[in-house]
Write a structure and sequence with these properties.
- With 240 residues, the protein is of the alpha/beta class.
- The chain folds into two domains: 33 residues, no CATH class; 203 residues, 3-Layer(aba) Sandwich (Rossmann fold).
- It is 37% helix and 15% strand.
- Strands 1-6-5-2 form a four-stranded parallel β-sheet, with helices on both faces.
- Helix 10 links the parallel strand 5 and strand 6.
- Helix 4 packs across helix 7.
- The longest helix has 14 residues.
- The protein is globular.
- The chain starts with a helix and ends with a strand.
- The relative contact order is 0.16.
- The protein binds zinc ion (2 copies).
- One zinc ion binds next to loops.
Length: 240
């Protein structure tokens, strides 16, 4: 009854083909048709690099060991999915979006990012923004990945400054400035212990959209005192 009522108020339909569905926003056919990025780029020089690993010669320029991006935001369906999820607060899109990440990681090199000693985390929202949105869209997806790969999820970072959103800032240098000093480490003693133990961990940061990588670089810089072996980022889409 409740479900029927909900269906009348919020009918489920595929965001791509508009077919009516029972309990999701993406039909199976459209899910498999989503274009995944075939080529990954080095986060420092933005030239092609297998699996998005930072080139050995670029390691001095970024604290990130690699960035993996699943989709291109220029694709209409990708825009529609992320927009509904992020700005229309359609929380149940977290599942298909996480599935897209899992699918594209499986097609590439999942083991590079997730080994037995990995901690997964998400780009945090400022508490004010979190209250307004009701959920952290990156964290939702990160937690779904964590449970699928059986890896611990931890809120390693706190956003201590409520800076203007990056997408409202036009230029890369200004974006870098806008994000500087925005994050600090969350105080989780046992995680610190895990990461500082002799077998050092990988940290994987999850975000929804990236354009200039400024936010992810800043997150990684903030995580450096934990001395992880590698800091990787996994992102749904490369933005405009
Ligand atoms: Zn469809
Ligand atoms: Zn490079």
């Amino acid at each position: 009854m409740r479900k029927t009522l909900l269906k009348i108020i919020y009918p489920y339909y595929c965001l791509s083909c508009k077919n009516e569905l029972n309990d999701s926003y993406l039909c199976r056919e459209c899910f498999s048709a989503i274009p995944l990025l075939k080529e990954q780029l080095c986060p420092a020089c933005e030239k092609p690099s297998p699996f998005g690993k930072t080139h050995a010669t670029c390691r001095q320029k970024t604290p990130l060991s690699g960035v993996f991006v699943a989709m291109d935001y220029k694709e209409k369906i990708v825009q529609r999915l992320i927009h509904q999820y992020k700005y229309k607060f359609v929380k149940n899109l977290a599942e298909p979006l996480a599935n897209i990440l899992i699918k594209s990681l499986a097609e590439q090199n999942k083991e590079l990012f997730f080994n037995t000693n990995t901690v997964i985390t998400a780009v945090p929202l400022h508490p004010i923004r979190l209250r307004w949105r009701g959920f952290n869209q990156a964290q939702f997806i990160a937690q779904k990945l964590a449970s699928r790969f059986n890896i611990p999820y931890e809120n390693l970072l706190i956003r201590s400054k409520n800076n203007p959103t990056q997408k409202d800032i036009p230029q890369t240098p200004l974006r870098q400035k806008n994000i500087q000093g925005v994050f600090r480490l969350n105080d989780i003693p046992n995680v610190k212990y895990q990461i500082e133990s002799p077998i050092k961990s990988n940290i994987v940061i999850i975000d929804d959209i990236t354009t200039t990588l400024s936010t992810l670089n800043e997150c990684a810089t903030t995580l450096l005192p934990l001395k992880p072996k590698n800091i990787y980022a996994i992102v749904l889409a490369r933005g405009l």
